[in-house]
Write a sequence for this structure.
């Protein structure tokens, strides 16, 4: 092992610090380890963003998920699908890819479809999630899970089903700026998508021209014999689309709404680029607004981000089956968003129940055999108060803490007096680790 | 060294509400709150106060007017189809043509003294469900309710119904505004959602309100940290949860939730081991409620029924509740398979709401409780081709239920021969007029401070 030497920090961009890296990695991924924070602070903002947005294929690192002795079986075992995805969040070398997959899962919210189809949709979102939006949207229209969930497969010329057409405009592309007539006409243009079945199970969707309404439709004031691709194109080229998607991505990464001038500039660049998501996400992650108030958290961590980030920064893997249960208590069941509009973000994650479930997350981690457990011999007798705290911080993934929290924890250490016995030291250390995970600071990023 | 304790954390995850099926006699409200509700409670718009303070507020409100009227708002999400649920018999031929082979046969349940035929599923449940309640004169039906030029988006339309306005500017709910004007600043139980999320209809500007989830254990125990060390740790947890100047909205929300979780825990600590198990009926408890020998049967396995059962129990605790809300669980957004899906959904609604009404009667609460049932819009008269599915439409259905409901059909049934240019039903009653009528006739206060431009909407006789 290399001996640690005091090093003067080199900062290529002057104001790019470990705090910046932590903020960026929590917002665009699942946290930064102490090592990552150090490394990417040294290499600078541009290199950190290059790293996050690197399009090369992801690998999984670290201990593979297991439940007891058993490996995961996402297709057959209850809740293993959720654990399977959580495991990717914990171990992927491309955490932003998983964050984008989570974004699209919320955006094209689908639930109650067969697990094979849900997992196929998940892979699709991962594969296309940072590519071109119009390409993603085209694939989503033919995605069996979504098409079935939104009854698109039952939308036929003789009697159109408007469900998908409405959500296409309201939730997927525009938010506003269309009429009821636009929805009806779009539903007609979207007719003809059917299930391709094998052994009675849907395996894909296909277009059946015989069920398509080939007549003239007027959508957003434009008339033509519009088909499926035309509707999707009309939606993404509608002037409301750019600002709509920029605003939602901004809310996801930065929180709140972008200043109108910034929004319009980002939207214009995005449309000009041919709906490229990677540069748009990069532009948002570069904005100074993302790095405000680095000394304190500004966004409530999504339950998935809290759990995956905690395990990831601790270098731990999934080894208990409890996470889906705990995440449900916090308000987020993966593959089961509460409505077609996905989850409610921000402070809506919080309630006394949710906070107690987050307390339960800390319990799961400091349990005997858990990744943050305190074992005899870890807490040496001669530790100073600072060393006590440093040990606890190191063992829970070196989270950011505020000055007030540091002061409170120091006070807790002091209350144990000088030289506490082994049992007391262990309890103190366990309390510190628990508070670092369950306390308010750690729910924010 | 203290004795080692059994490994606790994982057990803690799996444990759900302890069960109980015994009367509440001898349980103080404070105990009930701590044990039964504890972590299941979420407070909104409240100042930072310990739970005990809120309990005193609830007791004071109840003592001051023990017989105050209660309005219960029940939301059926998705947009319930008027025609299949309550059909105007005289329009049956047109209906049959529009729905083709998915038209339901005319059921024998033509509601007494009217020309409206109820869906057969609405006769499910105790005492023949909703149809039975109609027969007993406890239902006022409001077909065709909506607003002019309705927005057929679930989210927009819901928001309008929730806020009692048809703009997107209003942030408080119509029932929340009533509490702001006529409620207290000390009793969050005055406005209560039975369920995990506060109903947006109850969002207030200043008055505290609460949502109550099925109870969980509220303890905040930590494996292998024993008292007094656990107490020390929790003291620090409390300090970290204290309000801080300079906190943004996210940090403030996190700290408030942490304070409340800990408060709930504090109320339990002194009772642990002594108190009886939680008296609140939870989802896993028997679906039969026995109040003084009167048996009410909620539908087995129904979440909606369980939530209503919890509400009836809560209303009986003397918490000074004036407004309560429940969200239905069935999905009435029947774009496909409407015949089967609607039958299933209405059956749950009928059996659960009827049980709720009988439960209120058994508890002696029915004369002062009125239930208003609503949905965000209606559905298109012409079905689509998805096995009898229907798309979003105008002119929905609502009803008022209770001993004091002005029984009968209270609005004009929309004509199937005279549809609007989008082939939707023409709206015959504005929901804001219905809100104003409920405020004036049931809550006994003027409506114009709650519903903007209230004078513009015709009123309906809903209360007798």
């Amino acid at each position: 092992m290399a001996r640690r030497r005091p090093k003067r920090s080199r900062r290529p961009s002057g104001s790019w610090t470990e705090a910046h890296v932590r903020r960026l990695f929590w917002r665009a991924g699942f946290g930064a380890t102490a090592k990552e924070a150090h490394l990417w602070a040294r290499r600078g903002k541009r290199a950190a963003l290059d790293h996050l947005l690197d399009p090369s294929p992801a690998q999984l690192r670290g201990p593979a998920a297991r439940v007891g002795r058993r490996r995961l079986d996402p297709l057959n075992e209850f809740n293993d699908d959720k654990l399977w995805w959580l495991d990717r969040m914990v171990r992927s070398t491309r955490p932003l890819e998983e964050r984008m997959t989570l974004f699209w899962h919320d955006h094209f919210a689908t639930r109650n479809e067969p697990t094979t189809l849900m997992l196929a949709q998940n892979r699709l979102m991962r594969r296309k999630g940072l590519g071109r939006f119009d390409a993603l949207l085209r694939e989503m229209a033919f995605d069996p899970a979504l098409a079935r969930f939104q009854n698109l497969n039952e939308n036929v010329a003789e009697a159109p089903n408007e469900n998908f057409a409405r959500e296409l405009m309201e939730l997927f592309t525009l938010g506003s700026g269309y009429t009821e007539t636009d929805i009806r006409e779009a539903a007609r243009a979207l007719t003809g998508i059917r299930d391709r079945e094998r052994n009675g199970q849907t395996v894909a969707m296909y277009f059946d021209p015989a069920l398509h309404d080939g007549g003239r439709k007027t959508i957003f004031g434009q008339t033509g014999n519009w088909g499926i691709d035309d509707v999707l194109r009309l939606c993404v080229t509608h002037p409301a689309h750019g600002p709509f998607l920029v605003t939602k991505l901004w809310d996801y990464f930065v929180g709140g709404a972008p200043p109108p001038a910034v929004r319009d500039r980002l939207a214009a660049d995005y449309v000009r680029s041919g709906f490229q998501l990677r540069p748009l996400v990069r532009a948002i992650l570069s904005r100074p607004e993302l790095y405000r108030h680095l000394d304190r958290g500004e966004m409530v961590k999504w339950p998935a981000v809290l759990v995956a980030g905690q395990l990831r920064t601790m270098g731990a893997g999934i080894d208990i089956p409890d996470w889906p249960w705990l995440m449900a208590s916090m308000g987020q069941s993966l593959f089961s968003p509460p409505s077609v509009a996905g989850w409610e973000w921000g402070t809506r994650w919080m309630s006394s129940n949710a906070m107690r479930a987050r307390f339960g997350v800390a319990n799961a981690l400091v349990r005997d055999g858990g990744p943050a457990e305190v074992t005899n011999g870890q807490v040496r007798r001669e530790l100073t108060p600072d060393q006590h705290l440093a040990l606890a911080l190191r063992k829970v993934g070196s989270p950011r803490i505020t000055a007030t929290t540091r002061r409170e924890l120091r006070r807790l250490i002091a209350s144990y007096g000088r030289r506490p016995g082994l049992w007391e030291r262990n309890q103190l250390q366990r309390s510190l680790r628990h508070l670092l995970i369950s306390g308010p600071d750690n729910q924010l990023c | 060294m203290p004795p080692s304790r059994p490994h606790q954390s994982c057990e803690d995850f799996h444990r759900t509400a302890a069960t109980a099926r015994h009367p509440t006699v001898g349980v103080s409200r404070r105990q009930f709150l701590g044990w039964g509700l504890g972590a299941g409670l979420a407070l909104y718009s409240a100042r930072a106060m310990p739970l005990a303070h809120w309990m005193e507020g609830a007791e004071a409100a109840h003592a001051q007017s023990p017989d105050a009227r209660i309005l219960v708002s029940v939301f059926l999400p998705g947009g319930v189809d008027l025609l299949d649920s309550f059909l105007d018999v005289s329009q049956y031929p047109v209906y049959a043509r529009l729905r083709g082979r998915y038209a339901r046969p005319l059921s024998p349940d033509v509601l007494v003294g009217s020309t409206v035929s109820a869906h057969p599923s609405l006769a499910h449940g105790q005492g023949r469900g909703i149809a039975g309640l109609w027969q007993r004169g406890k239902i006022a039906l409001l077909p065709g309710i909506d607003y002019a030029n309705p927005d057929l988006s679930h989210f927009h339309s819901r928001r309008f119904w929730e806020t009692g306005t048809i703009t997107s500017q209003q942030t408080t709910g119509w029932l929340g505004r009533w509490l702001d004007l006529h409620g207290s600043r000390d009793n969050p139980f005055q406005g209560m959602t039975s369920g995990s999320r506060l109903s947006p209809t109850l969002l207030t500007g200043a008055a505290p309100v609460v949502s109550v989830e099925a109870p969980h254990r509220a303890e905040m125990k930590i494996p292998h940290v024993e008292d007094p060390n656990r107490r020390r740790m929790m003291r620090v947890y409390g300090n970290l949860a204290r309000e801080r100047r300079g906190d943004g909205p996210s940090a403030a929300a996190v700290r408030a939730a942490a304070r409340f979780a800990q408060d709930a825990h504090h109320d339990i600590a002194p009772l642990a081991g002594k108190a009886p198990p939680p008296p609140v009926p939870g989802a896993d408890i028997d679906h039969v409620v026995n109040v003084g020998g009167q048996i009410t049967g909620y539908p087995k396995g129904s979440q909606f029924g369980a939530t209503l059962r919890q509400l009836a129990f809560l209303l009986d605790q003397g918490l000074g509740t004036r407004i309560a809300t429940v969200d239905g669980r069935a999905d009435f957004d029947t774009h496909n398979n409407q015949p089967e899906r609607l039958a299933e959904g209405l059956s749950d609604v009928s059996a659960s709401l009827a049980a709720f009404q009988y439960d209120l009667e058994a508890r002696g609460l029915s004369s002062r409780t009125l239930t208003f049932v609503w949905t965000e819009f209606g559905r298109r008269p012409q079905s689509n081709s998805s096995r009898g599915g229907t798309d979003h439409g105008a002119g929905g259905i609502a009803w008022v239920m209770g001993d004091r409901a002005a029984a009968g059909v209270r609005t004009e049934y929309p004509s199937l021969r005279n549809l609007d240019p989008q082939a939707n039903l023409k709206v015959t009653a504005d929901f804001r007029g219905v809100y104003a009528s409920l405020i004036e006739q049931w809550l006994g206060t003027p409506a114009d401070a709650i519903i903007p431009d209230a004078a513009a909407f015709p009123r309906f006789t809903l209360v007798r």
About this structure: Chain B has 13 helices and 16 strands. Residues 1-39, 268-286 of chain B have pLDDT under 50 and may be disordered. The first strand of chain B starts at residue 41 and ends at 44.
